[in-house]
Structures are given as structure tokens and as C-alpha cells.
Model the fold of this input.
Amino acid sequence: MTAFIRLSRWLAAHASLFVTAIAVVTFFVPQLFVWVRGTTQTVILGIIMLTMGLTLTTDDFRILARRPFDILIGACAQFLIMPCVAYLLVRVFHLEPALALGILLVGCCPGGVSSNIMSYLCHGDVAFSVGMTCASTLLAPVMTPLLMELTAGEIIEINAIGMFLNILIVTIIPVAIGCFLNYQYSKSQHFPTVQSLMPGLSVTCLACIVGGVISTVHDDLIARGWLLFLWTFAVVFCHNTLGYLLGYTAGRLARFNTAKKRTISIEVGMQNAGLATVLAGNFFAAQPLAVLPCAISCAWHSISGTILAGLFLRWDKRSD
Done:
């Protein structure tokens, strides 16, 4: 068990490296994750959200009531900045419909689970980070379909009700189950051990989702060459980077302290791209390339979040 705990910590510390490695390996051996499709992919995302719930306590939800102004600013920034930036980039880069759907979906999803780790690493406000993640996840079943209808409705017909139910099943219910188990068994002597395994399990599941996507779009990538990948990555890079910058700007306008500005920057910039990947596969199956921006975002958001946290720490050292 000690070995598993160490492995879990290693995976959490090197999440971006591990996910990227899986993506590269799958590109050369696409059969590895051909099984990660449809219902299997949905179940894997449900496990990721369950691991999130297992780490949440009642105190984490009390933050929503104790700091309403902070959470309101964070939620507004989350669901205003990223969809608007995605919509703008789709126009500027003249993306084809499938890729446009993918980047818009990433923009309309809630904040990513790993953003809490990044906030901790860069001395951000971790309680605020957890509160923002909880708030955006709880709002996602309504906000994500609504924002997709507004931004992508002219590209394809959006099944808003179906998307609402799918997000409810794959995010809210697993998180609720995890929270219940945490509340029920938190005093058990073995429960902390279970919790310590969750980060590694979450990273492994995310890597499986990315591997499944690479397996799905492998033939298109081969047929259209590196240009397709690089063009899509450029859009993902701009979307993610502008999210960080505009999130930090929102914190400055709200007169947040340094820790909260860093947190809102990371929370806005890092999206739940795993959820976007599953939704793209479930609702835009006729546009298989829609999952490509989602898969690239899964890997890149972890990498860029680590880089940003490091830059914040380097700034602290220079200031000292």
C-alpha cells in the first residue's frame, strides 16, 4: 500500500508529463486505448469526479456561504471570460466547424479539478480555489448547455436537455457520492489511505481519456499531417493563456489580494477539458475532430498550470 501511495503522489506531481507521455505513445500505438469510447469514457470521467468528491469536506462547501462576493466574482469570470475568448478565437482563426465545437466546448465547461493543486503550489488561496471549483461544477449542468447554445448554436443543433442530464450524471452525482462517503467514513482509520490514492487514480483516468481521444482522431491526424495539430494547439494555447491573463485582470478589478488574484487566474484558465472530451464524444459524434481541442487542452492545461505556478513562485523569490 505504501508503494501505491508513493505512486499516487508521483503521478500527481508529474501529471502533465504522464498525460503527455500517454498521448505520444498512443499516437504510435493507437490500439492501446481504442477501448476508451462512449460509455466507458463517461464512466472514467465519473471516476475522476468521484475522486474529487472524496477529497471535499463540509467546510469546503461552507466557503460558498462565507465568501459569497469572492465566489460570485470567480463564477462570473469563469463563465464569461472563457466562452467569450473561445468564440473570438473561433472567428479569428477561421476554425472549421468540428474544431470550433471543441474549443467552444472547452470554454463553456467548469474549472478543472487540478487547478486546486496549482493554487496550492503557487501560494494561492486554496480555500477560494476549492470554492470556485465547487461553484462552477454545481453550475455546469445549466451554464454549459446554455453557453453552448449561445456560442455554437449556429454551427450545430445543441441538445441542451441531453447535455444537462449528461453533465448531471457524470459530474454532480459522482461528486455527491464522494462527498457522502467522505462525510460518512472520514473518521475511519483506513479512509485517509483511500484519499491519498485518489490523486493518482484521477491522473490515470485523465490519461486514459486523452489516450482514447488520440486513438479516435489518429487517422485524421495522419491524413492531414502536423499542420492540423499545430493549428489546433495554437488556438488552445491562446485560449488558455488569455484565460490566465484575463482571470488575473478580473482579480485586480475586484481588488483581490495577491493570493486570490493568482487563484482566480488559474481557476479561469484551467478548464475541465476531460468533461469537454466526454461531451464532444457523446453529442458531436458526427464531428470526430471536435474532441481534438479537448484532448490537447487536457494535456496542455496541466503543463501550463505547472509553468504558471512556477513563474509565480519565481516572482516571489525575486521580490524577496
Observations:
- The chain is about 85% helix and 0% strand.
